[in-house]
Amino acid sequence: MFNGVDFSKMGEVLSQAQAKAEQLEKELESKSFGATSGGGLVSVKANGRGEVVDITIEDELLSDKDSMQILLISAINDVLKMVEENKKSAALGMLGGLGM
User: Fold this and answer.
1) What is the pLDDT of residues 5-38, one digit of tens each?
2) Residue 6: what are its φ and ψ, rounded to 5°?
């Protein structure tokens, strides 16, 4: 089951993985993602960690609460999907960099 696996290097691999994970976390903090809905009536920005950092709602939408809620949900879901895809891509890149 473990034929050909050199366990003596496991500590080194784990240290590399931890360093790469810390580097990835710093890179994620500096990234920014944005999504709009309703033809630009609502825009949402999030950082690479998935934290919403800005929301813009055009004044003409303020009197239509139901539409505003729908468009806001749509934009938030879109931006969070972008963040998640970026995280997956970065994690796969990190694993590739470790030779796994």
Assistant:
1) 666 677 777 787 788 778 877 877 789 999 999 9
2) -95, 95
Confidence band of 97 (pLDDT split at 50, 70, 90): low
Q: What's the pLDDT score for residue 98?
A: 57
Chain CA centroid to CA 60, Å: 30
Tokens for 22, please give them: 């810390």
Of all helices (H) and strands (E), which one includes residue 33?
strand 32-37
**Per-residue CA distances from 87 to 3, 13, 15, 84 (Å):** 32, 21, 20, 5
**pTM for the model:** 0.72
Angle (CA) 100-80-95 rounded to 5° is 5
Other beta carbons within 10 angstroms of residue 19's beta carbon come to 10
